[in-house]
């Protein structure tokens, strides 16, 4: 956090109801996002837990340009099913397209008609599209999705964890927005949604926090949100947050849309991408906002999806240089909620998410140097991993894995297997 945010920690009002820090946060949210109602919660997944049950249940579907892990889990916890609908060019990391986070508009309408508009409880637009590689959504695409949602009377939720980075890409890449400020782009983008959920730990750069926003201040949805918040999070004027957290969040809403900061922020990802280009290491290109998504399937083409190449590279990075990353692939995607069989992800990425206002160029060089070393010995890594234990949902947070060891012909076990675990 910035020095101003740390100063805000000392100014936080810890009153249970109606703290001055709450009103600062509410006013900042109304100003930047243009929504009438702002509800603090303790983090992004809490926002989903409070909001999603009001729209989703058994027999319902939610469609997104791409669900991230916890968002998909909250859809399934409601008894509904999550459907990804990202544009096709996003599925090829080597294609350089400016808005690979976009919703596939034709597929969206086809899915709505296939499942029936009455069964689509929610459409979710993730900006930027995290699972697709931190890729941005265009203003034009958001407008088209909004139009379809209105046509079929389906509520549109914005998963807004990286709203500021998305706005920066829109300003850089979309002609109609090149002369707009970041704040103006954010407000217009949000005008196409009906509500938003946000993990504030991302673009508002705080230690803890989340938000729910509702555009229409007279919506009956607000009473449902308040009721769920009181049940799960705390009174609706603090939503599970301390006053100091709300104070820093109110400051971060503005700091996150500072264009100079965003240029520096995106520039770090671009620097890594430039070095990876020189080294011949494939990643989701052009580079996304909050990090670089290395194509682990390209680095380990001999390792199948059900041995988790993204997880293989994450483990190798930790072994090589103590760098902690994560899989964004089949390991994270998990099992089909109905058949319980392993799902095959569209990507097998290892995500290099860059902490905000923390890393120097020397840190970034260490990461790339480690990747280059791993690439040079990638052929020596013959197999991936198998899961020895997993929980029923969000398995990648807790699951246990072990390496698959390839045995030689002379080491065949009593069951005549050439592979042991």
UniProtKB/TrEMBL annotation:
Cite a single Pfam family from the UniProt record.
Beta_elim_lyase
Write the Enzyme Commission number(s) for this entry: 4.1.99.1
**What does the record give under GO molecular function?**
tryptophanase activity
- Which residues are recorded as modified (N6-(pyridoxal phosphate)lysine)? 202
Give a yes or no for keyword NAD in this entry: no
UniProt-listed InterPro entries: ArAA_b-elim_lyase/Thr_aldolase (IPR001597), Beta-eliminating_lyase (IPR011166), PyrdxlP-dep_Trfase (IPR015424), PyrdxlP-dep_Trfase_major (IPR015421), PyrdxlP-dep_Trfase_small (IPR015422), Tryptophanase_CS (IPR018176)
Root EC class: lyase
The family line of this record is: Belongs to the beta-eliminating lyase family.
Protein name, as recorded: Tryptophanase
